[in-house]
Amino acid sequence: MPGNANIAMPTGIESLEERYINSCRRHGVLPNKAVLSAFFKADVKKSRHQLCNLVVFLDDLKDADFLPLLDVFMEIDTSEIDAVDILHESSCVLDGEYVLLLLRAINQKLRVVDLRDLSFGKDFLLDLSQRGLTCQVLNLRSSHFRKLNMIGKFMQIRTLNLDFSSSLTSFREDCFTCMPNLKCLSLCETRVGNLWTTSAALSKLPSLEELRFQNCMCCNNTGPCPASSGGKRTDSGQLDSGLHNDAPSFDFEEIPNQFSNTEEVLRNLFSLNSYDMNDEVESRSECSSDDSEVDFSNCHHEFGLVKLLSDEIPGWNGLQNEMFFSTLGMQDEECSPSSSTSNHIPSIAPKKYISHHPSPICYEKHYREYMIASLPNLKVLDNFLIRKVDKEKANIIFSQHFEYLPYKRKNKECVVSILQMREIKANHTHAKKWMGKASYASGKSQYFYSRSLCAAKVGSSPWPLLCPLSILGRISGDESRNFRPRQFEYHPSDSSLMVFGTLDGEVVVINHENGNIISYIPSLGAMNSVLGLCWLKKYPSKLIAGSDNGSLKLYDIQRKPSTNKAICCSAPSVTFDGFDQLTSVHVNSTDELFLASGYSKHVALYDISSGRCLNVFTDMHQEHINVVKFANHSPSIFATSSFDQDVKLWDLRQKPIQPCYTASSSRGNVMVCFSPDDHYILASAVDNEVKQLLAVDGRLHLDFDIASTGSSQNYTRSYYMNGRDYIISGSCDEHVVRICCAHTGRRLRDISLEGKGSGASMFVQSLRGDPFRDFNMSILAAYIRPNSNTEIVKVNLLASSDNAKECPDNQHSRPSYSKGG
Fold first, then answer.
1. How many Å is the maximal CA-CA distance in the chain?
2. Ramachandran area for residue 74 (φ above 0: left; ψ -120 to 50: alpha; else beta)
3. Average pLDDT of 25-29?
């Protein structure tokens, strides 16, 4: 018929094969036997009226084979081929640029991309993640992503597998923004561990239904375990997502379930169960990557993460084989639906869930409930169906143990809307006053709006701004100075100042807002590591500094305008009698006295005006006293924390022979401090035992119930933030700072510290809440990498990490220790 004259017929498979052979002749290469075999198998499938997919193994190709294939694949969209699968079974040396050109040439018929061992370089990964692909299934197992930032267009992708990516720790803020159809995501045995940033990233996937960070031992894909679900399909119609197999089995709705013997072999080759948990860990490469998203410095085998984590995270070996999920258990812990409801719900899983290839996030307390409550569209988690009762219980557990937003705010609000409401209220109040009418409080004070603004900003910034403190200034002609901070304190009255002491005995006063050094005091051979620092309140230019060799000095630091000239290296000082093996100093509220403690059972009391040691209180504890703190408003009240597991309150007016009271922990106490209003005492014992006590009598007010690691060297420190509204807690064997409500104990957020490159994990050595800025803090961070320095990292929960792209990222090291606060 004339009307059909312009309709182009699809290019036949034989014609494609002939085109390939002719292209090989033009490029002077022999036709690849594996490619010819792939054309033959596709033709057989077409003759059997099966899905005509062309399967290409990169393992069978050399760089010379790509140009002829590119010529053919440029015409693939108009051919009889229904789909093209690009598979990669083992290590091979290929040019990553050729592979990318091949993937892009296939265009809309690209169905499965399975790259098991990425040997194409970091440029390949970056290009793939930033530009995207048109495939439906993307398997990037054992990839070298460190911070995943897949911002490219992946509009067709339905299944993504990043299992065994042992460098992957987190997700960038814009990750997953162009994956509207992604239904199945697998992240087994990665290093992802932060509930908050992970759920925020995953919430951008509107179609996500099946997720796993660990897998049931009998399951190879993200679908529900047949043993627990009776083999029922999920609403998506998928029983097997095809993550692990020769991905032609990807979608049972679209792809027939008949496969040739060749494909059955491929399915076995790509099964996750073909891996052995005890595979040997490959040696680490000496190279390191400066890229913030991709890391090739750690070339572990797929199951090397378990050994890696057991080396870096105390207690990991004892956890790696078994997991306990309260949602799946036969017994409820804190709260459950009413017995009348739960009695009619049969258990769908054994009480003990055997974990297979878990990521660190799985060991977070209430992990399952948190993920279910945060991702309401999720249908399957870790191969277990999510039932209605599971969602109900998850919401209850979430409300008991977590804060969705600060200050009990239930819904995210727009900052502009809050400002408008505040302005309307202010104008309304002003009008009433102008008319001479009495003004009555509406319940929404300025205090209310400031909290609402904080809640709105924290809610809009799941990735808070972290920026290492930049130190600027020339010290006595020294063009570059590498400080090693060991202790720091904010100034009590000047919001821009901070002092830090170093491992080399130096004392540095810095404007932490612009990085300018205000004053520098060298050690002059008299001091070792500075472990004790305390500003005077009534005399804002003075501070006490103490070092671990017992040296104690009072410095008078007059603030000078910052200039480009070298910083003056002198300050008037008063020397006090030494206190051997000092770990802590603290000044009372009237600036008359200060206390010192250290590796002994004694505490020394000093008079600041005379410079004399007034008294040494002996045998106050059974073991050494790590920290001593005066109350903020009572000049004679102080508290001590000791490794004898006791916290004691003392009163100088009663001659501290007997404590006012003693409160005990189950482990040695590392830290103690008073709330800003002295109503509470915050006690921190080894390995995350953090409790809030009533200052008046030492009764327990709150146990923050932070999970322990099992390490006796995991020294924990906690301080108040936002007055006494929140507490921040960190430990020297962990890279996480936890933020909890001081009124309810519920967890608001975890801040994860991440070093640059593999093997550069960061740990918390000390921390302080900013006394002038809500939801701001600074962390003294240490690296695990040998021969590196510590650094002070400023954290702003009210700002997004997008603003931190230009922050310097220095490389430093991890010191140890329980000393000081």
1. 112
2. alpha
3. 93
Q: What backbone phi and psi angles, to 5 degrees, belong to 280?
A: -70, 145
Pairing of strands 736-741, 747-752: antiparallel
Q: What is the mean pLDDT of residues 138-163?
A: 92
Per-residue pLDDT at 759 exceeds 60: no
Q: Can you give the pTM of this predicted structure?
A: 0.81
Judging by beta carbons within 10 Å of its beta carbon (0-12, 13-18, 19+), is residue 695 exposed, middle or buried? Answer: buried
- How many helices and strands, by DSSP H and E, does the chain display? 14, 41
Task: Please state the length of the chain.
Answer: 821
Estimate the crossing angle of helix 388-401 against helix 367-374, to 10 degrees: 110
pLDDT of 250 above 50: no
Pair 439, 433: CB distance under 8 Å: yes
- Going by C-alpha positions, the residue among 582, 606, 644 that lies closest to residue 820 is 582
SS3 track for 747-764: EEEEEECCCCCCCCCEEE
Span 424-429, average pLDDT: 65
DSSP assignments along 559-584, one per residue = -----SSPBP----EEEEPP-TTEEE
Q: Residue 358 corresponds to which amino acid?
A: P
Phi-psi region of 705 (alpha: psi -120 to 50; beta: other; left: phi over 0): left
**169 close to 215: Cβ distance less than 8 angstroms:** no
Based on its alpha-carbon atoms, the radius of gyration of the chain, rounded to whole angstroms, reads: 31
- Count the neighbouring beta carbons within 10 Å of the beta carbon of residue 795: 22
Assign 302 a pLDDT band (cuts: 50, 70, 90): very low
- Read off the tokens for 10: 């699809």
Return d(Cα 628, Cα 586) in angstroms, integer: 7
CA distances from 676 to 48, 532, 632, 766 (A): 79, 20, 6, 19
Single out the residue of 583, 557, 559, 579 nearest to residue 570, CA to CA. Answer: 557
**In angstroms, rounded to a whole number, what is the distance separating the alpha carbons of residues 773 and 465?**
14
Give tens-digit pLDDT for 632-668.
999 999 999 999 999 999 999 998 889 999 999 999 9
The mean pLDDT of 61-67, rounded to a whole number, is 92
Bridge partners (DSSP) listed for residue 499: 489, 509
DSSP code for 213: S
Read off the pLDDT of residues 670-719 as tens digits, 9 standing for 90 and up. 999 999 999 999 999 999 999 999 999 999 999 999 999 999 999 999 99
In one-letter notation, the amino acid at residue 803 is: N
Distances (CA, A) of 552 to 483, 528, 548, 605, 652: 21, 11, 10, 12, 21
796-814 pLDDT tens trace: 999 987 655 445 443 333 3
| Residue that has been written with the tokens 């919430």 in this structure | 203
Q: Under a CB-based contact definition with an 8 Å cutoff, are residues 50 and 43 in contact? A: no
Query: What pLDDT is stored for residue 255 in this prediction?
Result: 34
Q: Are 111 and 139 in contact (CB under 8 A)?
A: no
Sheet holding 747-752, edge to edge: 716-721, 726-731, 736-741, 747-752
Beta bridge partners of 603: 597, 617
Which residue has better confidence, 92 or 582?
582
When the pLDDT of each residue in the chain is averaged and rounded to a whole number, the result is 81
pLDDT of residue 622: 96
Select the CATH number that applies to the domain covering 16-212 from these four: 1.20.120, 3.80.10, 3.10.110, 3.40.50: 3.80.10
Residue 125, both tokens: 């990964």
User: Domain-by-domain residue ranges, the chain?
Assistant: 16-212
Where would I find the H helices in 350-442? 367-374, 388-401, 415-434
Contact 58, 94 (CB under 8 A): yes
What average pLDDT score do residues 562-587 get? Answer: 77
- Average the pLDDT over 132-157 and give the result: 91
Q: Which residues contact 429 (CB under 8 A, 6 or more apart)?
A: 439
Q: Cβ distance 648 to 664 under 8 Å?
A: no
Cα(686)–Cα(714) distance, integer angstroms = 6
Task: Compute the distance between CA of residue 348 and CA of residue 229 in angstroms, rounded to an integer.
Answer: 7
Return the ∠ at Cα 217 (arms to 213 and 221), rounded to 5°.
60
